[in-house]
Structures are given as structure tokens and as C-alpha cells.
Amino acid sequence: MSQRPTIMDVAAAAGVSSATVSRVVNGVASVDRDLARRVRAAVRTTGYVPNALGRSLRRGGTAQIAVVTPDAENPYFTQIISEVERIVRADHYSVTVAHTEDDLDLERDCFAQLVGRHVAGVLLVPVHGARTDLSPLTDAGIPVVLVDRWIDGAATDLVATDNIEAGRQAARHLHERGFRAPAVLTGPSDLRTTEERVVGHLAAWRELGVAAPDSVIARGDLHLESGRELMAQILAAGEADCVYVTNNRMSAGAFESMRGVQDAPALLATDDDLWTRLVTPSVSVVHQPVRATARAAARMLGQRMTDPEEEPSTTLLRSRIIDRESTRPR
Amino acid sequence: MSQRPTIMDVAAAAGVSSATVSRVVNGVASVDRDLARRVRAAVRTTGYVPNALGRSLRRGGTAQIAVVTPDAENPYFTQIISEVERIVRADHYSVTVAHTEDDLDLERDCFAQLVGRHVAGVLLVPVHGARTDLSPLTDAGIPVVLVDRWIDGAATDLVATDNIEAGRQAARHLHERGFRAPAVLTGPSDLRTTEERVVGHLAAWRELGVAAPDSVIARGDLHLESGRELMAQILAAGEADCVYVTNNRMSAGAFESMRGVQDAPALLATDDDLWTRLVTPSVSVVHQPVRATARAAARMLGQRMTDPEEEPSTTLLRSRIIDRESTRPR
DNA sequence: CGATGATCAGGAAACGTTTACCGGCACGAT
DNA sequence: ATCGTGCCGGTAAACGTTTCCTGATCATCG
After folding, report:
1. Is the CB atom of residue B6 positioned under 7 angstroms from any atom of strand D?
2. If you average pLDDT over residues A28-36, what whole number do you get?
3. Is the Cβ of B98 closer than 8 Å to some Cβ of chain A?
4. CA of A32, C1' of C28: distance in angstroms
5. What pLDDT shows up at residue B124?
6. What is the mean pLDDT of chain A?
7. From CA A155, how far away is CA B131, in angstroms rounded?
8. Is residue B1 predicted with pLDDT exceeding 60?
9. Would you say domain A7-50 falls under CATH 1.10.260.40?
10. B133 touching A, CB under 8 A?
11. Has residue B215 got a pLDDT over 70?
12. What nucleotide is nearest B57 when CA is compared to C1'?
């Protein structure tokens, strides 16, 4: 089509300079009432929309924040994304998403992209606690806030669930309901998020006087299928009277395996995803405070964007048990 | 921090002009092998990353495509987003998301944003078939492809499920299984997506010799709660032996209402969301070809970006029934 | 051997903003 | 009356690229 109107066109239409138009559009400094009115009229008649590229180039920064997650279809992450967007929209920031698919190469490419695009900040769920390299972002002076997953030794803000406590809550809940032979379905041992849940869980069982042998810990890869397979093995072994699953996708797989099975062990899953309350028996879960996590992360990122020199901090949010049928006393 | 290196820094380091650096970085034209090597070395040592803002400003366009949906937490839309990102990434495009929350004002603001940011194209699930105003986008020359929902009279590409056929499939399936007293749970009558499913559904029942009175159509607002409430009413009336729900969120609500109810009517839901195969009885669904929709939409947008003048077309993709327990013959 | 053409690198303009700086004007104070 | 002070608007530079155009070098051919 025809070219879009620029600030120059507006200036010409209003009979003023581009500087004045800019001042009016950005509401900065004071310009004569009549002039301002004329400018606004010209903006309307020309249909002028400021070019964000020119603006960002001149200002040296965009109004975009990036949310980078391993899996954009996981409800936990989609809720985070959705909530973050809602929050930052109020400050006229927009959100770009990228998924890394748990692939370090994709993550690296993604970081380069974000640096080139001069995003104002990044909310990151890193692929790996040791091998994710934040330096492209930090070297470029882009504030990063970690969400849900740690990076070893990184001097970076983090917002996450208090996972040790989450694991303890799970153990206490199961113990209270009368179960005494726990099993755990969890993720890879180098993923701190799920591993801390296991640590807290086992510690709590020990304190409660139940010696939980290491053998009851089954490790998968966070995907639904591995949850299904590992649960099948646990059922076959037939030694556990309750199972705690530390991750939402594996929880679904685990449930699938025990669906309809007589005298199945109690199931305590992670995350209050929709299916957990629709299935029979409905599934008790450790509910992570997703919205609160998103809010805290967004707030923290905002702080870092205004004051980059402050000390990084860690915010741990408390989960809670949602008690349903799958952990009823037998 | 210190300033980021610009193309000038690289040029100085390599002892060439910025033009040459640009040519090397973009792999355009031919530059001397030695020079190119020197430039690449300088890029590495300086840690240069091209500034996408400068580039886009100069080139007059970005490499971003926007996906605008009403609800970023609905699995149907998240799958679309996720798949689109995966596809366009191959062409070095990135994706920005915005949710409109079914709010026309938000949608309008969002369009203005996108125009200002000079996105290369938009994949849009419009808020309203009559009141969504595409002109800000089209006036700015931004290609738009509609996904899942129509806009009345818009000369715009559309990719969607063949909803009339989907409704017919639903009726045929239920009839085949021996049900003869259908009810329908659907969205607002001005939403063509769900309304066409109803139309096709009723037409198919009629052809099958079952006169379905209009009274069996219950209209909600697409949210889970309305599905729950309307299903409760249908159960109370006790006249239907099968229920077709035309939308995924309402499907979940409907199931919730009939969960554990003796002699509940058969349920045929929409979308193969996770819960449908985990619940008891597992729920038969009309499965929309989500990935294929995303692929078709991305491809179509690509075409419009290269050739804006072509005639708009409509692509309808065929759904299929996934047969589970909730529609077993009684 | 000179002219022509091909090839390649650099200079500089342009993309659309914002903003530092300057100039002009009005007004008040000395 | 003159000078100083504020205020407000315009001029122009700058942000970092890409790309047109020009000029230089070199080879080929007449």
C-alpha cells in the first residue's frame, strides 16, 4: 500500500515541527494548548501510529519482555505466560514467547535473538541448571529473572515454589491419611526443581519415623509417557501404598496407568491441572501458586529493569495441598 | 554496562567499512575471502550481534509474526501458538503473542501496537465476527490470516475446521451408537464457529430421520462454568439420551456435571484435550486438526507476506471422531 | 598498448524517532 | 529603558543498519 504516515506528515499537516509532534504524542514538556490540539487533530486525520522501531532505536531499548520456557503447552507455563502478559500490559510492555523444547542449542539461539532485538528483560525457565549459559544476556545488560528452575551459581533473581516444603507437605499429607509405604515418581536427578521435592519428601518421611528406602524413587524425563511406564512398574512391584509424583505431566501419565486398577495406591500429584478434578477418583495435588509466581517474577523483573545494580534475591512461594479422593484413607 | 558493539566497532576492528561488514554478516554479494575471514574474526572477538531495530527500521519491516488469541490458556490456542512458533522459527521469524480476553477494546489496542511495531504478519482469532475491525491492520498493509473464527464479509484468508461437517460427524456418530434424543450445548449464537457445528449437527439428525426440536439447544458463553450449569439443567430435564458439546471448555464443565451420575446421557465433546481420555468414562470427542490448522495458517500467511495481492482463500480442515467410552451403545 | 567491462569496497544517505541545544519572545524587575 | 529570566518551539544530530552510487583495481579483448 501507500506508505504509512510518519511524524513528518503529521508535522506538516499541523504546521509544526516534528519535535512538537513528538512532544505532544509522548505527553512530555508543555506545548501550547492550541498547538497541541492541532497536532492531535492531525494525528487523527492522518491515522498516524508512531513507529516503535524508530523510537526504540533512538531510545536504546524496546518495551518488550520475553518469556522463555521449555514447553509452551505445559499448563504451568502457559498460565505463567498468560498472567505475565496481563500484568505487564498495564505498563505498556508487550510479551514475546519462545520455547526452547529443553534443547540447549535452541536456547542459545534464542538468547542471541533476544539480545539483537534489545528486549527490555527476560523471564526464563532455563533448560539446564549447569549448562545454560546466561552470559549472552547478562553481558548485553539485559535483566533476567529465573522462574521455576535454578541455575547453579548464577547471581540472578529467582522466583519459584518452595519445593522442599512442597515435598514435605506431600509426605505429611500422605502420612496423615494413614499411608506408610511411599513411592516417588520424579524427574531427572539433575533437575533441582523436582529433586528438591524429593529431598523434602524423604526428609519428612524420615522425621515421621518412616524409613523410605531409596529404591522407591523412580526417575523419568518429565514427559507423560515416562510417568505412565514408571507407574506401571510400581504397580507391578506392588509394594507402595501411596505414590507422590513431582511433576504435572508425569502425574497425568501415572494416573493413566492406575486408571481403573483395583486397590491402586494413593496418588498425590503435582499442579492443579484440569484433569485432576475431573477424573475418578479425583486426584489430590500439591498446588503451586502459579499466579503469584508470575506476579512476583514480573515485579522482580520490573525492579531489575529500573535498578540493575541491586543484589539478586530469591523468592520462594508456598504451595498447598488440595485434598481430593485419591488420597482418602483406606 | 558498557555499550554493545555496533557494526562500526566491527568495521574498525577488521579495518574495513561498515558496508563490508554488513555484506558479510548478511551473506549478500561477494566479498574477498580474506576480508570476509577478517570480518568474521572481528565479529567473534567483539561479540557483535546485529541490532534488529536498526535493521528493521532500514529495511522497513520486522521478522516477527503475531498470534492474537482470545485466551492464551485454552489448549486449542496454546497448541496453535506452539506449533506456529516451531514452524516460523525455521524461517527466522519469531512470534509475539497477545491475548484479547474476548474484549474488543483490548483487541483494538493490540492492533495499534502491532501496527506500530511493524510486525510482518498476524494470525488472528478475532473477538467478534461483526465488531472486530481489521482495518487498522489492513490499512497498514499487514497481512492477516484468520484462524478458527470468521469475520463477516472480510476479504481475508481463513483457516478453520470444517465446522458444519464436524457437527454432522457428531450426529452420525451418536445415531450410529443408537442414540435418538439429542441435546446440544453450544456457545453464543453469534459465534459462527460453534453455530455452524450446531447447524450441521441438526441437519444431519434431520436427514437421519430424527426431529430434533430447537429446545434441546442450550447456549452458554464458552466458559467451563456455563457448560456445567447447562448440563445440570439438561440432566434435570431428563429428556436427552445424548449430548453434543461444541467447545472444549464447556465440554469440561458438562462432564463435571455428569461425573458419577447414574444413567447419564452419552457425551460427545469437542477437542482431544488431556482430560477427555483420563476421566471415567473416557469421553469421545470431535477432534479438530490443530497442528494441521497451525501449519496451514502459517503457510498461508507466508504466501500473503510475499504476494499481498492474491485473492483471499478459505481453508477448511476435516475433523474426526475419537471414539471412547462415553458414547458406547447402552 | 589502450579501452572497456567486471568486480569489489567504501562513502554517504536514508529509515523514523527523540532530545540536546539554541533562539526568540514576553514579561518582570531594576 | 535595559537586562535577565523563563518558556516554548524549531533545528539538527544521533540511534544502527542497509544499500545506492561511485571509484578503484584488475583482467580481457580489440
Report:
1. yes
2. 88
3. yes
4. 21
5. 98
6. 95
7. 49
8. no
9. yes
10. no
11. no
12. C15
Q: Does B52 contact A4 at a Cβ distance shorter than 8 Å?
A: no
Question: Structural domain boundaries of chain B?
Answer: 7-50, 62-161+290-320, 163-287+321-327
Fold for domain B62-161+290-320?
A: Rossmann fold (3.40.50)
- Whole-number average pLDDT of chain B: 95
Q: What is the structure's pLDDT at A135?
A: 95
> Nearest residue on chain B to A78, judged by CA atoms?
B73
pLDDT in tens, A162-198: 999 999 999 999 999 999 999 999 999 999 999 999 9
Q: Which three cell numbers stand for residue B139?
A: 490499512
Query: With 70 as the cut, is the pLDDT of residue A259 above it?
Result: yes
Read off the pLDDT band of B309 (50, 70, 90): confident
- The secondary structure of chain A, three-state, reads CCCCCCHHHHHHHHCCCHHHHHHHHHCCCCCCHHHHHHHHHHHHHHCCCCCHHHHHHHHCCCCEEEEEECCCCCHHHHHHHHHHHHHHHCCCCEEEEEECCCCHHHHHHHHHHHHHCCCCEEEECCCCCCCCCCHHHHHCCCCEEEECCCCCCCCCEEEEECHHHHHHHHHHHHHHCCCCCEEEEECCCCCHHHHHHHHHHHHHHHHCCCCCCHHHEEECCCCHHHHHHHHHHHHHHCCCCEEEECCHHHHHHHHHHHCCCCCCCEEEEECCCHHHHHCCCCCEEEECCHHHHHHHHHHHHHHHHHCCCCCCCEEEECCEEECCHHHCCC
CA–CA separation, B307 and B302 (whole Å)? 9
Q: Does domain B163-287+321-327 fall into CATH 3.40.50.2300?
A: yes
Residue A1 has pLDDT above 60, yes or no: no
Nearest nucleotide relative to B19: CA against C1': C10
Q: Lowest mean pLDDT: which of A74-83, A218-227, B1-10, B45-54?
A: B1-10
If we measure between CA atoms, which residue out of A53, A49, A140 comes closest to residue B55? A53
pLDDT given for residue A92 in this prediction = 92
What is the pLDDT averaged over residues A29-43?
92
Return the pLDDT at A2. 60
Question: Looking at chain B, how many residues does it have?
Answer: 330
Fold of the A62-161+290-318 domain: Rossmann fold (3.40.50)
Strand B284-287's sheet: what is its strand order?
Answer: B217-219, B182-186, B242-245, B266-270, B284-287, B320-322
**Does residue B307 belong to the interface with chain A, where contact is any CB pair within 8 Å?**
no
Domain A62-161+290-318 matches domain A163-288+321-327 at the CATH topology level = yes
What's the pLDDT at A87?
95
Candidates B158, B119, B175, B108; CA nearest to B142 is B119
Residues within 8 A of A (CB atoms), B 239-298 only: 252, 255-256, 259-260, 273-275, 277-280
Using the CA of A20, which nucleotide's C1' is the nearest one?
Answer: D9
- State whether CATH 1.10.10.10 applies to domain A163-288+321-327: no
Give the mean model confidence (pLDDT) for residues B32-60. 95
| The pLDDT of residue A330 | 85
